[in-house]
């Protein structure tokens, strides 16, 4: 159905702002709400002079990485809230959306077991380079890198078209040259990896004009370390495995490293180094970091055109170094270049505030009263009085504190605006007395409450971030299993789960078959009840042969646990071939009602990951609650876990509940496909329809059903996109809450009544898509999105 | 179904380690200089150390093919057997062996001691390579060589530079004197130039005069500073009354009232208290004689002699100079010696309100001591520019108020910065006590402020 375009839709040119709009803007959008910029969205809005030397050092290193025969290691450190993630975000902005300066890959919150971390890292890198797509790869960074490689190989000037044969020959010649460069170079040139990259490009290129043969998707799976069936391997031109029941995949860490070496190498032909930004490494377990560091060390010694930036707290890394978690040689390699961030001066702090205010003020400078006040006080509507109150007498401050204080000051203005009404607030703004915000000590219950609320907001924020960038959370059984293990361990020895006796991770041997389960749980449901065991398997594979092998191992288990929970992910659904189906039937028969299959949606995966992500934030010192008076109070890792238990967040997640509450009636959930809560079209008032898949492989929401359509108006996605672009054209930036209020009003004028939460859910869903389309910048904060015009 | 023969994982790993070693050799000397641990990491980063040890012990697959500096230590350098000479000459081997022998308490060792730590087949080539490196001054940058005086003869010893050698007290004092001299220069005014006695008092109160003599004779001092008076007598009093300045400030020293006064004191005796400019110049080191003469003449012409010095014009335009304190007058003038005593820089306390060059609110003594302590503590850390307040408070003999005020002034001057207690492993009561709370945050670590 083609939606009709409403003639009243707010299209260009944008309307001139009015004072009323300004008051609304002040009231609903606080430019200081985002105090942690982990992604690129807000980074360019902030003062560029702050940490300028460190930033220059980073960009210089990027430049140097291009010229070095081996990779460069750099460490970026400083205390929490000092701006480490912000600097990495600025680096990404500098690299450009098209990665013109560098192919930047931002990695954080890796959860896989130490021995699986290299594969998990590769999976994340490939997912980011291919935007998490399963088709339509021609716009991806990986495509561009190989395109540049081929242009280089062909010395292509665009004058005459070249055949695929010529391209392939030139490409292989290029690889031969690589091997000849140095006696040791050949050891790290994995011809298979280069051949797969070529097949990826050829398939993606052809898919632009003709039908997609699916080879590019197979190539991406192989490059990401996933298994391919023999027929899939043949389609990709890989040597078929010896046995019919065997799969083709990167065998070990050496091959994984070689793929990364190849990726760095192809990036060099686009004159861009591959930059791996490993943020918040201090939130990993020591063994995980040890494994990651060793792998990165080997990678740095093997790859050229590579910069690895490790980012974390000095105190934690120092401790690990002293404890021998990281070998000294590895440490020296990773910290070859040190970039230290320190507290900033009050003058720099003012610059940060001013830089955040500027885009807020700018659209309203056409309004005489606003212009007058801005000319009089460059920090309007925060005011220089705020600066005096918070910054006077200070020697140095953390950027995060400055933002928090500005947010407090802004909230005070919002309260005054609400109390006095817009015109009076404006009239009295200059001489209105502002009572100082006094520090007040809170009782423990109140602090708990604040921690709980803050953790709730951060969980939503974390989930929103993954929804905005789904490629940063690729389907990954290792990561999922590691995550589940960590979360289940937190439920051990707690009053909430007294029945849980033990959580055991089944280690994967270096050689020989892997165990049938990822995790085994022991539970006793009553004092006299027998002990039961639950086996968990994260089955996140595309290969049917591989899937069969997993299921066969379960069937062949001679001492199976009483319960079996099979976890799949919606991007890799349970889709066995005939043999696999037979095994599946046998399993169902064996376990009966105690066989459970849970198909995890992306949102549920993101929620699960958020539970641990917020713990990671606390570990890195990045989680704070604000006490009255703008004082930060750091929330510890233990406090977050306590809060999870207090708010029953583990029980609240359907997968954890299913695993931890083994009632017989749980069988009803077998094969349940959970609702796409929160996704566009699933909010109250909308109905779920047939499943669609977008390029990322995540089932997308059905087309928006029109609500009411008086006068032929259809409040569809197109209309909403136009509304958002129109608003941002006027305001440069706004919170999703503010836009939702305006959207509700906009719909009301069209005689369409929708609740504010529905408006907000829809608006955020569309904004996320627009962010992925590169139309705007979205940054999650608390339970909102901060939206900025690009 | 027939049972498959069980894989020997260690043997497999050993075989692959040799392959990787060969590959590293092809990469060139930088990559080929590696330890057993690194080799294992490159081969299989996830291989447990026990398996690696088993692999190393495999005679056929590994031990026969390679030579390692130590059979069980994973940090031992390794090479292919045919490259034994290359391994013997590698800086990695030298550092490894030094690590085995040297400790912070006993930082140096002889070649014989080192040789005893390498396997037999390496001993000869190792010694030869080491002696050649010493002779050609080609030791790795991390390794130093010193001559140690033995009971009968001196012996060449080697040491790892990261372990500080037992300090040479005269050298240390010489360096400290120069550093304090620089700090005083920043203060300016009456604080610089100064008498050597005052400099010693600031740098190392109570230093043994014999040590001071050794220190000022050291190149570390001689190259940086200039002592104004010739010191033929080596008498302590004369030595300590000698004005001193940085060599680059000779002009300033020549023109200083302090020097004029010191020269007059050096010249005067119980029977003669007057001197001509030429007499005074004779007491000075050669490099200062001409500028000193010019400066005194100018001061006489401009009537700008210091108030403690008098001058009379004699026949043929000759001037005689004297100390005002030597002038015998009536009772009204009796306060003069006391006045002079007060004006002596050596007796004056550090200025209460320092000149702008020093951080406002702190004494030069604190600044110097803080800098020293910070540097010393930083050298002990593995992570640079990150020193805990716990250690700094322990290292500095100042009460809390003085320490906090001094640090505050240093921060305000942009010299140092603080950062919060940040790790996830909690804060000890000692750290809690040593930290400084600002805006509700416990600041615990000190770093030099970067620009």
Can you give a write-up of this model?
The complex is a heterodimer of chains A (790) and B (451). Chain A is an alpha/beta fold and 790 residues long. Chain A has 29 helices and 17 strands. Helix content of chain A is 48%, strand content 11%. In chain A, the strands form five sheets. A five-stranded parallel beta sheet of chain A has the order 2-3-4-1-5, sandwiched between helices. Chain A has a five-stranded mixed beta sheet with strand order 6-7-8-9-10. A three-stranded antiparallel beta sheet of chain A has the order 15-17-16. In chain A, helix 8 (215-223) crosses helix 9. Chain B is an alpha+beta fold. Chain B has helices spanning 9-27, 29-32, 36-43, 49-57, 59-63, 84-88, 91-101, 111-115, 120-135, 169-187, 196-203, 209-217, 219-222, 236-240, 250-254, 257-267, 277-282, 286-301, 335-343, 364-380, 389-395, 400-412, 429-434, and strands spanning 34-35, 66-68, 77-80, 108-110, 143-149, 154-160, 194-195, 225-227, 243-246, 274-276, 309-313, 319-323, 387-388, 416-420, 436-438, 441-448. In chain B, the strands form five sheets. In chain B, strands 13, 14, 15 and 16 form a four-stranded antiparallel beta sheet that branches. Chain B has a three-stranded antiparallel beta sheet with strand order 1-3-2. In chain B, a hairpin with a 2-residue loop joins strand 15 (436-438) and strand 16. In chain B, helix 1 packs across helix 3 (36-43), helix 1 packs across helix 4 (49-57) and helix 10 crosses helix 12 (209-217). Chain B starts with 8 loop residues before the first helix and ends with a strand. The model of chain B is unreliable at 332-357 (pLDDT under 50). Classes of the chains: A alpha/beta (790), B alpha+beta (451).
Features:
heterodimer; A: 790 residues; alpha/beta; 5-stranded parallel beta sheet; 29 helices; B: 451 residues; alpha+beta; 4-stranded antiparallel beta sheet; 3-stranded antiparallel beta sheet; elongated
């Amino acid at each position: 159905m083609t939606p009709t375009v409403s003639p009243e839709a707010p299209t260009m040119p944008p309307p001139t702002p009015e004072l009323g709009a300004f008051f609304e803007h002040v009231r609903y959008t606080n430019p200081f709400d985002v105090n942690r910029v982990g992604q690129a969205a807000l980074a360019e809005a902030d003062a560029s002079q702050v940490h300028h030397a460190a930033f220059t050092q980073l960009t210089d290193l990027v430049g140097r990485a291009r010229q070095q025969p081996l990779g460069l290691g750099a460490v970026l450190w400083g205390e929490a809230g000092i701006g480490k993630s912000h600097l990495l975000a600025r680096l990404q902005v500098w690299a450009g959306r098209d990665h013109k300066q560098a192919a930047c890959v931002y990695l954080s919150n890796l959860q896989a077991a130490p021995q699986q971390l290299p594969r998990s890292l590769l999976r994340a890198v490939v997912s980011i380079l291919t935007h998490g797509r399963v088709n339509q790869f021609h716009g991806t960074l990986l495509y561009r890198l190989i395109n540049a490689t081929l242009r280089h190989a062909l010395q292509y000037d665009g004058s005459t078209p070249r055949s695929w044969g010529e391209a392939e020959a030139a490409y292989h010649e290029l690889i031969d040259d690589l091997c000849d460069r140095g006696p040791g170079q050949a050891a790290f040139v994995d011809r298979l990896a280069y051949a797969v990259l070529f097949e990826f490009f050829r398939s993606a290129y052809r898919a632009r004009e003709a039908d997609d043969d699916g080879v590019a998707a197979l190539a991406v799976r192989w490059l990401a370390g996933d298994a391919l069936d023999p027929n899939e391997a043949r389609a990709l031109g890989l040597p078929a495995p010896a046995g019919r029941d065997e799969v083709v995949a990167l065998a070990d860490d050496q091959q994984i490293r070689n793929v990364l070496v190849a990726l760095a190498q192809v990036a060099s032909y686009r004159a861009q180094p591959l930059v791996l930004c490993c943020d918040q490494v201090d939130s990993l377990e020591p063994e995980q970091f040890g494994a990651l560091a060793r792998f990165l060390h080997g990678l740095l010694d093997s790859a050229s055109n590579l910069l690895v930036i490790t980012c974390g707290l000095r105190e934690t890394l120092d401790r690990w170094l002293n404890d021998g978690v990281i070998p000294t040689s590895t440490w020296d390699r990773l910290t070859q270049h040190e970039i230290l961030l320190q507290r900033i001066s009050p003058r720099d702090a003012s610059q940060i505030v001013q830089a955040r205010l500027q885009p807020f003020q700018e659209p309203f400078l056409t309004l005489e009263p606003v212009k007058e006040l801005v000319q009089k006080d460059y920090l309007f509507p925060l005011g220089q009085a705020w600066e005096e109150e918070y910054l006077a007498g200070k020697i140095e401050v953390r950027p995060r504190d400055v933002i928090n204080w500005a947010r407090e000051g802004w909230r005070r203005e919002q309260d005054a605006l609400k109390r006095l009404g817009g015109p009076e607030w404006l009239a009295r703004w200059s001489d209105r007395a502002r009572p100082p915000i006094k520090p007040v000590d809170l009782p423990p219950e109140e602090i708990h409450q604040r921690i709980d609320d803050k953790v709730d907001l951060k969980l939503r924020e974390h989930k929103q971030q993954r929804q905005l960038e789904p490629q940063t959370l690729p389907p990954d059984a290792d990561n999922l299993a590691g995550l589940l293990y960590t979360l289940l361990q937190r439920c051990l020895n707690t009053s909430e789960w007294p029945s849980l006796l033990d959580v055991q991770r089944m280690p994967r041997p270096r050689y020989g078959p892997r165990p049938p389960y990822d995790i085994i749980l022991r539970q006793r449901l009553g004092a006299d009840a027998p002990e039961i065991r639950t086996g968990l398997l994260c089955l996140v594979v595309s290969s049917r042969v591989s899937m069969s092998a997993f299921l066969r191992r379960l069937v062949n288990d001679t001492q199976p646990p009483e319960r079996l929970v099979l976890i799949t992910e919606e991007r890799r659904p349970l889709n066995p071939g005939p043999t696999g189906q037979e095994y599946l039937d046998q399993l169902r028969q064996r376990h009966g009602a105690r066989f459970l299959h849970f198909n995890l949606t992306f949102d549920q995966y993101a929620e699960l990951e958020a539970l641990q992500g917020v713990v990671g934030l606390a570990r890195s010192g990045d989680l704070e609650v604000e006490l009255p008076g703008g004082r930060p109070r750091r929330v510890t890792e233990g406090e977050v876990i306590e809060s999870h238990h207090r708010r029953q967040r583990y029980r609240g997640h359907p997968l954890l509940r299913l695993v931890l509450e083994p009632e017989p009636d749980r069988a009803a959930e077998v094969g349940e496909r959970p609702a796409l809560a929160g996704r566009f079209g699933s909010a109250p008032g909308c109905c779920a329809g047939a499943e669609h898949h977008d390029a990322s492989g995540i089932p997308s929401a059905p087309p928006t059903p029109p609500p009411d359509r008086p006068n032929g108006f259809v409040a569809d996605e197109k209309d909403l996109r136009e509304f958002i672009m129109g608003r941002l054209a006027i305001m440069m930036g706004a919170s999703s809450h503010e836009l939702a209020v305006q959207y509700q009003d906009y719909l009301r004028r069209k005689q369409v009544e929708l609740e504010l939460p529905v408006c907000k859910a829809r608006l955020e869903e569309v904004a996320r898509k627009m962010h992925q389309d590169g139309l705007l910048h979205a940054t999650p904060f608390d339970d909102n999105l901060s939206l900025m015009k690009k | 179904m027939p049972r498959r023969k069980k894989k020997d994982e260690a043997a497999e790993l050993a075989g692959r380690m040799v392959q990787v070693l060969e590959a590293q050799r092809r990469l060139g000397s930088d990559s080929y200089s590696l330890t057993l641990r690194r080799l294992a990491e490159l081969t299989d980063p996830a291989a447990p150390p026990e398996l690696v040890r088993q692999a190393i012990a495999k005679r056929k697959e590994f031990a026969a093919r390679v030579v390692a500096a130590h059979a069980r230590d994973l940090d031992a350098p390794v090479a292919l057997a045919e490259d034994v000479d290359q391994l013997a000459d590698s800086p990695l081997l030298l550092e490894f062996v030094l690590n085995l022998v040297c400790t912070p308490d006993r930082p140096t060792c002889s070649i014989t001691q080192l040789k005893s730590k390498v396997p037999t087949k390496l001993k000869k080539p190792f010694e030869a390579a080491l002696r050649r490196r010493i002779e050609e001054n080609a030791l790795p940058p991390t390794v130093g060589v010193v001559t140690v005086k033995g009971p009968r003869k001196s012996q060449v010893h080697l040491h790892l530079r990261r372990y500080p050698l037992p300090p040479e007290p005269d050298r240390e004092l010489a360096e400290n004197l120069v550093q304090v001299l620089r700090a005083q220069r920043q203060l300016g005014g009456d604080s610089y130039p100064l008498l050597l006695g005052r400099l010693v008092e600031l740098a190392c109160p109570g230093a043994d005069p014999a040590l001071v003599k050794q220190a000022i004779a050291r190149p570390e001092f001689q190259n940086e500073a200039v002592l104004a008076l010739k010191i033929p007598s080596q008498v302590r009093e004369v030595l300590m009354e000698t004005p001193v300045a940085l060599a680059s400030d000779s002009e300033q020293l020549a023109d200083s009232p302090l020097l004029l006064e010191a020269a007059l004191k050096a010249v005067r005796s119980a029977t003669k208290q007057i001197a001509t400019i030429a007499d005074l110049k004779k007491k000075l080191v050669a490099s200062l004689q001409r500028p000193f003469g010019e400066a005194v003449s100018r001061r006489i012409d401009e009537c700008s002699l210091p108030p403690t010095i008098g001058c009379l014009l004699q026949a043929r335009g000759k001037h005689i100079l004297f100390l005002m304190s030597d002038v015998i007058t009536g009772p009204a003038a009796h306060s003069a010696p006391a006045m002079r005593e007060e004006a002596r820089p050596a007796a004056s306390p550090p200025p209460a309100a320092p000149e702008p060059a020093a951080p406002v609110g702190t004494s030069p003594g604190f600044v110097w001591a803080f800098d020293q302590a910070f540097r010393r503590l930083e050298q002990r850390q593995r992570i640079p520019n990150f020193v805990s307040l716990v250690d700094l408070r322990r290292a500095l003999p100042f009460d809390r108020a003085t320490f906090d005020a001094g640090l505050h002034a240093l921060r305000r001057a942009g010299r140092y910065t603080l950062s919060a207690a940040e790790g996830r492993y909690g804060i000890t009561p000692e750290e809690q006590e040593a930290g400084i709370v600002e805006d509700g945050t416990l600041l615990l670590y000190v770093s030099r402020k970067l620009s």
